[in-house]
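Ticket #4471: structure export looks truncated?
Reporter: QA, pipeline team
Priority: medium

Steps to reproduce: submit the single chain below to the structure queue and open the exported record.
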Amino acid sequence: MTSAPLRKLRQLASDQTLRSWLLARLIGREAAPPAFKAHCPPYVTSLELGEPPKPIPSFAALSPTPPANPLRLDLAGLTLDLHPGQEAELFDRNFDDVEQLLALHRFAWIEEATDPAWVAAIWNVWRQRFQTPDSGWPWHPYTAAERAINLLSFAKRHGLAQPYADSWNALAAHAPAIAAKLEYFGPHYTGNHLANDGRGLYCLGIHLGWERAASLGGKILLEEAKRIFSASGLLIEGSAHYHFLLTKNYEQAAQWAKEAQRPEAASLAEIAARARHAAGGLLLAGGLPLIGDISPDLSPQRLAPLFNRTEADLSADGWHRLEQGDWSMLLYASPDGWPPMPGHGHQDLGGFELHWKGVPLIVDPGRGRYGEDGEAALYRSAAVHNGVILSGQDPRPANRPYYSDAFRRRTGGAPPKATASSNAMTLQYGIGRANVARVFAADLGRFSIQDNIDGYGRFEIERGLVIPLPVDIQGCQASIRTPAGDVRLIADAPLSASQITRWTRYGQGQPATRINIKQEARLPWQGRLSLEAA
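Actual output as written to the record:
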């Protein structure tokens, strides 16, 4: 049996919710997902781009001088040092994480200060070995789009690698390759990649003078913005970092449109402005909480400083902020309680990030890599977040793109409901047949979390707090040492600790402590945690 059918059988055996959905399909209670034509969004009338434009001297010709100094590459959390003459070996390397391979082929390692001689040397090796489009990873449409954008942005600053016509033609080949494999998989399973495919076509069309590519890319960017951003301008995929990344991408496209006096310019600028305002609403006093996945494309450390805090109200999208005195909290609860699908959200319902005096005190751990098992699955689960866990289960079953909204409502528990006052916030939601209410309250020197769980039956109730700072635990109390002073945690049950990673970017993180408060109890149940300035 091949690995794909075996994986699906294992999935079915371990997922009761999936079995319930299949039964509902068999008896006619659930309909099949809507039919669609893969790779062809319904608003696109033609994917034909016509003949590619002939090379014209719209870029400077980059000097063919070979690199003379070493180069340090950042590949999705992996740092590599290259010496002149080693550029060919780079593409023979085996990578532990496919995202590192993709970062190499996306030329995502190019920065403002990267030596142009190195870019030309590596591009010429790539062109000689990979320039013919095929079905492999180097020509995945998202990767092809990123590569074209990164190389054309570089060429605008420094020039196009020689032989000029060869580089031009190799870049032009990206447009039909992307158009043929647009990442459209129906309304239920198309994520933000399709918008990026459009961005790649738009960049190629504008900078190579290819009108059909520019028109198709612009159409995709405008139409996808209606789908992936909410009315408030927020990306609906459950990740703070991905929202910042998509904001930057749309701002870049808007700038291209303005420079080229394209008809899409005003609409793209409006989309980007709304997204930027929303991004400011995700920032806390101590920076950007990395709630949800962290993209390997551009690190939070490079993105977050480009944005300022705003008063954007994102509560309709499930992002709730509480600011009172020294305390600053951001809480995410997706509108239906499920991690968005498709998306980059985690099983973090009821979790939050809390800053005190501008210091991240309780943090979301983020996730260091993608995957469906091992550490990648752990950091997507509730087991490392700051929520409430009943008998070791995530607050929602694993989400599937083909589940209907009605099925999710029937099987997932009551959807979240948040109410707020000037110094408190209450979040109510269901976990199966239990109903949870978390009340967060702040005053000048104290922050408290009151948990009330209604229902019946006996459960192991676990609450978790991820601390990125030195912490000393003594029984039911803990002392947290911060640069702004000590904070004391007071709990209603004994504390224990486990060492985890707080991921600060894709593939890289710092040690952190997850404080666990576990107790066996019969519902209904109440518990309280308090944080006080020492």
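Status: closed, not a bug. The export was complete when the record was re-opened. Leaving a note from the reviewer for reference: The longest strand covers residues 508-522.
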